[in-house]
Amino acid sequence: MLRQFGSVENALGASVAGFTKIDGIGTRTAERISRSVDNFNVEKELALADKLGVFLIHLDDDRYPAPLKGIYDPPPVLYVKGTLQRSDNLAMAIVGSRRCSTYGSEQASRFGHILASSGLTIVSGMARGIDTAAHRGALSAQGRTIAVQGCGLANVFPPENVKLKGLIEESGACISELPLEYEPLSENFPARNRIIAGLSMGVVVIEATARSGALISAKAAMENNREVMAVPGKIDSPLSVGAHRLIKEGARLVDSVEDIMEAIGIIGDGLKGHVSGVATEVNERVEMPLFDVSQLSLSEYERKIFDCFDGDAVHVEDI
């Protein structure tokens, strides 16, 4: 439409006859588009965007991310809250299960931290689980991170990530192709995942069930000539099925940040030394207890129960 009409404003003001001049759009589709435009209050949308501090960019805007522009189906318009920088063209996506294990969360945070500290922007979907851990890892390194939302930017999903959303906007950006007040409907997320892949040089999958949405991001990465990588997990865990399947189908197995950087061809001797140093520091922190027990005021009986937990899954009978 932008190529046909030259601008978003012209497209919004086009007639049914104008829409039918675009290849692949018949009269019925043109009528649907026209009705949708008529029902969409542009002035209200722009006023809300201004109130929320959101700006809009289209395909011909110099601020539009160059990697995303090159995919098969780039969003014609992006809503952005935060900042987009040229350095964000060096980005890595980290995706995975919403219901992840402690291991998965730790690895997502670790990879996010080390990659961000090495100058890469971390891209994910701000969902529960792996996505949240990846964003937090990047933020802990004072690095840049971009969240691609499956709803309009006036909404927060999941709602408990409202604080995280604010931190991401301060250290990167939250973006969406959807109108500001669009609800987080399930059908939004597969299309959202192509944007995650499109913004990135590669996609790292950390824990994914057989039907995980993370596999859609991996498929989109393959279709757009991005590197697809997967972190191995426990062979008897349902959370490992998706990642292990990707590896069998040709995805690169990665168990370190060095593996990721070698896969995308950006690691040299100087950067390798930095990555190794940061990895050692992060690994030591990951191995620290999740809580300072001295601050919990536990009874002797409660302390015995607490000591049964070491970060891995524990059966109730063992406790």
From TrEMBL:
GO terms for biological process: DNA-mediated transformation. Residues 57-264 form the Smf/DprA SLOG domain. Gene3D superfamilies: 3.40.50.450. InterPro entries: DprA (IPR003488), DrpA_SLOG (IPR057666). Pfam families: DNA_processg_A (PF02481). Belongs to the DprA/Smf family. This is Smf/DprA SLOG domain-containing protein. It comes from marine sediment metagenome.
